[in-house]
Design a protein that fits this description.
alpha/beta, Isopropylmalate Dehydrogenase, 2 domains, 10-stranded mixed β-sheet, two-stranded antiparallel ribbon, 12 strands, binds nicotinamide-adenine-dinucleotide, binds 3-isopropylmalic acid, binds manganese (II) ion
Length: 351
């Protein structure tokens, strides 16, 4: 079993270190190879996603990814910015299906930004498309008819792109509570109309799943009004990015939400994938030692489950994280005082 480990920038290395310790503690005989990504890779090699990193990724069964993003790189040409590392990996490896589970851990109900009686009902997964949408359309700057400089980004989805992510979401719903909410903006956008038409067509193959459609503005509102309403949320790249950060605060902290990015490629042990916290490099707290590593540790659990077939080990990590939180070992993001390493220690102890 081979994992490519890509810590990246800012708090990326801090939180990844703890997830690696947790995997090591399980003693599963996994080989880990580190690779450079993001701003640190740009500084070392002149590119945020060097060819050697892609080679290491392709040779592995899974990727454990920290975070990328460096304010010092924000003025670079877009293709050289740290964020291109994660976008490039998702695209180059056809990792089109992003699963972002959000549920409230026992004992954390009162740490949500929502009232406890509302937050305790949260148990949903956002299925976010990752290879298309306005993220990957034609973009640039131009001079308009009035002689003014304007920026543009083309939003589009092809039917086949929507079909393949819809199948992932319907299957996810079948394995959960059989309710699927497809989120779009079909009242305004043709991209969303095609999205909705396609999801409706795919739904014919899943008569056991209850499908509803919701406009994204309403979905953002319902997510805080009544998050318990949602089971599986299917949405595009941009809306999924925004709604998942919002869902994290419904749970309590962005330092808690993990993700899996999957495609169709199978390895010897499962589905090849990339696993990362949904948060970024958090430059405001980088180097201070109190970033919450639990999102990355939970991403490692998803990695073991989906890519390495180590379901029991994944369950153990998730149980150890739940126990850590239940015992009140909380970072500053949750109103506590525990530092990054202390939280990692607490999880390892509970394994
Ligand atoms: P961010 O997620 O990095 O941080 C947002 C806020 O949440 C900050 O106040 C930060 O301190 C806090 N936070 C994030 N993770 C935390 C954790 N584990 N524990 C405690 N607090 C945490 O988002 P941002 O500030 O908008 O972006 C910073 C950089 O990260 C940018 O360069 C952005 O492009 C990049 N980014 C990268 C990824 C990724 O690598 N997948 C994801 C999101 C943002
Ligand atoms: C995420 C991030 C990325 C995205 C950025 C860093 C490109 O915000 O993984 O949620 O927008 O997908
Ligand atoms: Mn995001």
């Amino acid at each position: 079993m081979k994992i490519a480990v890509m810590p990246g920038d800012g708090i990326g290395p801090e939180v990844t270190r703890e997830a690696v310790r947790v995997i090591d503690a399980l003693d599963l005989g996994i080989t880990m190879t580190h690779a450079d990504v993001g701003g640190m890779a740009y500084h070392a090699h002149g590119h945020p996603l060097p060819p050697a990193t892609l080679d290491i990724a392709s040779a592995a069964d899974a990727i454990l990814f920290g975070a990328v993003g460096d304010p010092a790189c924000d003025a670079l040409d877009r293709h050289l910015r740290p964020e291109q590392a994660i976008l490039g990996l998702r695209k180059a490896l056809t990792l089109f299906a992003n699963l972002r589970p959000a549920r409230v851990f026992a004992g954390l109900e009162s740490h949500s930004a929502l009232r406890p009686e509302i937050s305790r009902l949260i148990d949903l997964v956002i299925v976010r498309e990752l290879n298309g949408d306005v993220y990957f359309g034609e973009k640039g700057f131009r001079t308009n008819a009035a002689g003014e400089r304007e920026g543009y980004d083309v939003m589009s989805y092809a039917t086949s792109e929507v079909e393949r992510i819809a199948h992932v979401a319907f299957r996810a719903a079948q394995g959960r509570n059989k309710r699927l909410c497809s989120v779009d903006k079909a009242n305004v956008l043709e991209t969303s109309q095609l999205w909705r038409d396609t999801v409706i067509a795919v739904a014919a193959q899943y008569p056991d799943v209850a499908l509803e459609h919701m406009y994204v503005d309403n979905a953002a509102m319902q997510l805080v009004r009544n998050p318990g309403h949602f089971d599986v949320v299917l949405t595009g790249n941009l809306f999924g990015d925004i709604l998942s950060d919002q869902a994290s605060m419904c749970v309590g902290s962005i330092g808690l939400l993990a993700s899996a990015s999957l495609g169709e490629r199978q390895t010897e042990f499962g589905t090849f994938g990339l696993y990362e916290p949904i948060h970024g490099s958090a430059p405001d707290i980088a180097g201070k030692g109190y970033a919450n590593p639990l999102a990355t540790i939970l991403s490692a659990a998803m990695l073991l489950r989906h890519s390495l077939g180590q379901v029991a080990a994944a369950d153990r990590i998730e149980a150890a994280v739940a126990a850590t939180l239940h015992d009140g070992v909380l970072g500053r993001d949750l109103g506590g005082t525990a530092g990054t390493a202390e939280i990692g220690d607490a999880v390892v102890t509970r394994l």
